[in-house]
Amino acid sequence: MSARISFQGYGLGSYSFFNQGVPIENAMAFQAPDTPGVGFHDLLTVFLSGSGGIESVINGTGAAVNSSFGGPSDVVSYPSPSCNGARVTWSMFGAVLDRSASPMSLPE
User: Fold this and answer.
1) Which residues of 27-44 are buried (b: 16+ CB within 10 A; e: fewer)?
2) Which of 39, 63, 68, 98 could form an SS bridge with 73, CB 3.0 to 4.6 Å?
3) From CA 100, how far away is CA 52, in angstroms rounded?
4) What digits encode the pLDDT tens for the residues 44-97?
5) Of 41, 59, 50, 61, the residue nearest 15 (C-alpha)
6) What is the pTM of this model?
7) Which residues pair with 52 in a beta bridge?
8) CA 31, CA 76: separation in Å to the nearest integer?
9) What sign does the CA torsion over 79, 56, 47, 31 have?
10) What CA–CA distance (Å, rounded) separates 13 from 8?
């Protein structure tokens, strides 16, 4: 018997409020397996106050939030959709193509 894991998360947020004088750094606000059937939509992180911060939104994707950039740091969809193998990250600032992946071609 095989176990099936599936999950879709919508509208999740994580807030950084570390006010005890110790610079706490979290690697990510959310962590999830890269497994078919597991996806996240409309995630964000925000730095509220204190020291430290959150280095990414989910699994190393998304901008860090800290005292220099309070956010929000948004990830619209994770894992990111792909175009012919190239990963595309969508945010409130538009799409960013990961050029280390294979070239992509868009339909005309």
Assistant:
1) ebbbebeeeeeeebeebb
2) 63
3) 30
4) 999 999 889 999 999 999 999 999 999 999 999 998 765 444 444 444 444 443
5) 50
6) 0.68
7) 24
8) 15
9) positive
10) 14
